[in-house]
Fold this sequence. Notes:
12 helices, mainly alpha
Amino acid sequence: MHYKKPPVTFSDQVARLKSRGLKFNIESNALLYLSNISYYRLRAYTYPFQDNSDDNHPFVVPVTFEQIIELYQFDRKLSHLVFNALEKIEIALRTQIIYQWAMTYGSHWQNIPSLYRKPVLFAKHINNLQEEINRSHETFIEHYKNNYTTPSEPPSWMSIEVSSFGLLSQIFCNLKKGKEKNAVANHFGLNDISILENWMHCFSNIRNICAHHGRLWNRRLTAHIKLPTNPQNTFIANKRIYPYKLYAALCCIQYMLNTILPTNGFKTELIQLMQQCPFPQEKEMGFPDNWRSEKLWK
């Protein structure tokens, strides 16, 4: 099918939304917002209130444009909060992974094939890591290249420091189980290595959503969170939650932060932010009833 839809002016975008049943308090404000936030970016926030089985997408829930903007702004604040939390977790994970293997296998352990479970994945990941090193403009990478010739690759504490979170997750998952992997998991209060591998994969996906300004609030996550059965520290008691909704990931983020920085303010900020949500959307995000009564969130 050939796409034939023409571009639509900002004024016509307002008119189209009005014809579909969206209310406006001040139309001139809507024009300003639409000139700075694209119509299709906001579509992700109007979608839950429309009949999307109808080609015209009429609004079937009473809602105003201003409320849609409030929801968009809430999601931006949520995304920033989660992104900042994941930054702390990523840095801590990177530090532990580099340290545990370097202390046993030396500066360039990342290049030792025998440490990995799947040779094909090892070759792929090392190639990807080299590409990220080549793209890096970090001073310590440039210093190594200008002063050392052997080995040609920088040591792990430089190389892995410039890897993406996604690649870090893949490298960690492919590393063979042993005392080093156990030490990393134990550092974060986990007895099951597979749980940490899962969390790293899920966190890297969520981090990418936040980094690319994607909708987070009611998203169905493609990477499903696994919940620990015997965590070392306080976790949620109610585990009858959706593994593909955001609440499950938020619980795991809070758990990790509690081991990295016990005085972190993530839960306080999250609770305050949830009180500002313009619609009763906790259920859409996977929050169960009485979630605030969990020890993890107190």
